[in-house]
Every structure is written in C-alpha cells, then in structure tokens.
Amino acid sequence: MATDDGKTWLEVALNGGWGRGLQPLIPVSVREIVEEGVACVRAGAAVVHFHAYDEATGSPSDDTDLYAAVIEGIRAEIDAIVYPTIAFDGNDRYAFVETLARRGLLEWAALDTGSVNLSRFSEVAAGRPGGLYINDEPGMRHGIALAREYGFHPSYACYEPGFIRLGAALHRAFPDVPQPIYRLMFSDGLAFGFPPERYALEAYQTMLSVEAPEAPVMIAGLDADLSGITGAALAAGMHLRVGLEDAPLGSQLGNVALVEAAARTLPQLATAADIRRALGHEEAAKEN
Predict the structure, then answer these.
(1) For residue range 25-64, what is the model confidence (pLDDT) as tens digits?
(2) Which domains does the chain have, with CATH numbers?
(3) How far apart are the first and last CA of the chain?
C-alpha cells in the first residue's frame, strides 16, 4: 500500500453533491471551484476532486463544459491532478467522463464498484427513506473500458468491503487498465459500510493485503470525522482525503482550512509530479 518515496498523497474533495443546504461553505460556481482548488493545492493538496453545479439553481450538474472549465481553470494556474465525479444516475453514467477523456483532460476518474443504500441516521429516525446509489457491473465495465482506452486511473470509492473485492477482480480481469486507487469511504452520519473506527480500518487493511496488496489506498468519507483513524492509516502507508465533501455536515471550516490542518500533520507531502511518478508516469512527471 505504501509508495516507495514515503510521501503522503493529500486529496481535497471540494464539494460533493450535498448542496449548500447541508454543507453551506461548498464552492458552487466554476470561479469558486477553481479558486478553492488552486488555493488548496497551494496549501498542500496534490489531487482535487469536485462535482460541477448549475450556478443558477445551486443543484449538481452533469454539464461537460462546466467540468472542463474547472479542470482547465485549475491546471492553468497550478499543477494538480484534477478529476470529476460521475453522474449520480441515468443510462450513461460516464457520458461527460468520456467526453473529458477524449479532450485529454483526465488523469483520474471516479469508478464505483458496487451499489449501496445512502441513508442518513437522522432521516431514518425521522421516518424518511434514504436513496439508493446504483452501480451495475455493465456500467463498471464501461468505465474500465474508458480507462483502458484513454489511460486514466480509476479512483475506486469503496463504500462497502464488497466494492474492494469486485474492484480487485475487475482489475485482475483487465490488467492493462491503469492502476486503480482504492479510496476507503467511512461515515458517521450515513448508515453504509464502516464508521471511522480502528477495527474498521484494520478489517480493510487485511482485505486489501489479500485483494490488492500493491495498490495505493486512501482514507476518505462522507459526513465523517477521520481524526481517530488518520494516524493509524498514515502509519500503514495509506493516503488522505479531506474537504467539504467528506467533512461532517455543517462544517465551520472551509476547504483551505481543512487542507492546511491536514498538511501540518504530514511531514512529507507528495506533489502531483510525485504521484504521477509513483504511478509509473515518469515522462508526465518530468514534463510538469
């Protein structure tokens, strides 16, 4: 799981699909997302993940041009790995991902290897049903085919242990696909997978040592406080994601402050070039 140079990859997830009603400090407009992404990279992040929004409505958007504008805007200012989400639903979850890849704008892209109920504990208690996040295997295989064709790295969001097993099986079936990054998703506020506890981290560690022993691994979450497991995860050679997509809802800290706080605890931060090098992209690292 650890990279050879011993440097920690710090990713920032700028907004997620929460909307400002649940996470008031998220950036929404292209300008806001670009500015916060650049500021977070200057503060120590090397990877930027984001969701595009329709500025007029404040709702998440699948508009390819919005995604392209953010990626190009951040890259014009600073070197970073910038990657989008995938569509939450629809017949072709990867439509804008494919267009972005065809334009040469993707180094990584999200690829979720399973389906899960997204139910908030507060809503369960109030009698309100949660949503179902569906990723079928044909869709996953389409995403993997795009990764193989365009050479981007799948970023697996692992909400449940089975996501790791299926993701690893798919990578064994398609070994010519660029190395996936396994992102372990914890939550305090939603009833999926594991809470951010040491026993959960250890269970994931054990599974990964069997299923994907050489893969880079990152801890992340949704509505989660990862502070109780961050030290153990870093000691195990894992990497870290922070930001307002992952932070407890109603966070009083913005993205830059969250990155700065994380960066202060990490003695050796990787740059985007370091990450490319660790993933086998020597020429790309030299060019940047």
Answers:
(1) 999 999 999 999 999 999 999 999 999 999 999 999 999 9
(2) 10-287 (3.20.20.70)
(3) 25
